[in-house]
């Protein structure tokens, strides 16, 4: 989820949108309604590299209650990263989808390797909001990163122009999906089940994708609320949460997807407790 408070923390120049205030107290109230005991705060694109709102919220919650995923420039110094680690930061996010950047796969592969080198000593997660077709182009790079790599929103699959509402819809026709599955099978990727409203698939298509991912590696899937659903404010995610719960119940993976996996990925649990994140 995200902390967004434009009244107290100015947005980055040129921010793509200006949402209403969704502060730390709103976040805690919202997460409590889901019965959650831990929060992962993710830096939104509209704050750019200024993590002030996120870090102050993390301090208020404390490292036993919360974790965070920041954004930073590669020139950042190790002292800053270590201080953030003590606060509970456990990852860095690269966001291409929210900013409508034109992507050169070769250049972005170099960026992934650069950030992986920076965070590897800390054991952090490299989180990316990218399109699934790009995952296909980056398969070999992702496989060799040597850090936990997690993609937002189902990996952002798009079936267009394929008809994902067809009864016999084959998710392997989605550009990048075969590569995603291979990376999951090898333990080189994690997938976040979140924000169905941001995915260009029909409900049937997304169900097909989600169930296949769970069938392959349910231990590499985490659930996320995507609160406060920026640019989709007011959406009710409970029906979708219940749907994902049903998918997980079919293969006895509820505890994994809604709890254990996230605690391993974000460092609540350790390798001593059976977590293997890379």
From TrEMBL:
Domain of life: Eukaryota
Domain Amidohydrolase-related: 6-268
Alphabetized InterPro entries for the sequence: Amidohydro-rel, Aro_Compnd_Degr_Hydrolases, Metal_Hydrolase
Pfam families: Amidohydro_2
Transmembrane segments: none
Record-level Gene Ontology MF annotations: hydrolase activity
Database matches in SUPFAM superfamilies: Metallo-dependent hydrolases
Protein name: Amidohydrolase-related domain-containing protein
């Amino acid at each position: 989820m995200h902390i967004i408070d434009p009244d107290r923390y100015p947005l980055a120049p040129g921010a793509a949108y200006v949402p209403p205030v969704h502060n730390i107290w709103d976040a805690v109230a919202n997460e409590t309604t889901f019965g959650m005991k831990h929060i992962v705060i993710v830096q939104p694109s509209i704050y750019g590299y200024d993590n002030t709102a996120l870090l102050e919220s993390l301090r208020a919650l404390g490292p036993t209650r919360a974790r965070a995923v920041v954004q930073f420039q590669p020139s950042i110094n190790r002292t800053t990263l270590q201080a953030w680690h003590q606060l509970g930061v456990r990852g860095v996010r690269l966001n291409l989808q929210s900013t409508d950047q034109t992507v050169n796969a070769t250049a972005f592969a170099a960026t992934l390797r650069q950030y992986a080198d920076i965070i590897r000593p800390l054991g952090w997660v490299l989180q990316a909001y990218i399109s699934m077709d790009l995952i296909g182009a980056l398969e070999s790079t992702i496989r060799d990163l040597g850090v936990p790599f997690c993609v937002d929103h189902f990996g952002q699959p798009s079936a267009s122009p394929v008809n994902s509402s067809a009864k016999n819809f084959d998710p392997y026709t989605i550009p990048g999906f075969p590569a995603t599955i291979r990376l999951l099978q090898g333990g080189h990727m994690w997938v976040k089940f979140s924000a169905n409203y941001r995915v260009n698939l029909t409900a049937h298509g997304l169900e097909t994708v989600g169930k296949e991912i769970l069938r392959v590696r349910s231990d590499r899937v985490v659930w996320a609320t995507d609160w406060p659903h920026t640019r989709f404010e007011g959406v009710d995610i409970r029906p979708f949460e219940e749907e994902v719960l049903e998918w997980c119940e079919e293969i006895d993976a509820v505890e994994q997807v809604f709890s254990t996996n996230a605690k391993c990925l974000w460092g609540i649990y350790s390798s001593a407790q059976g977590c293997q994140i890379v």
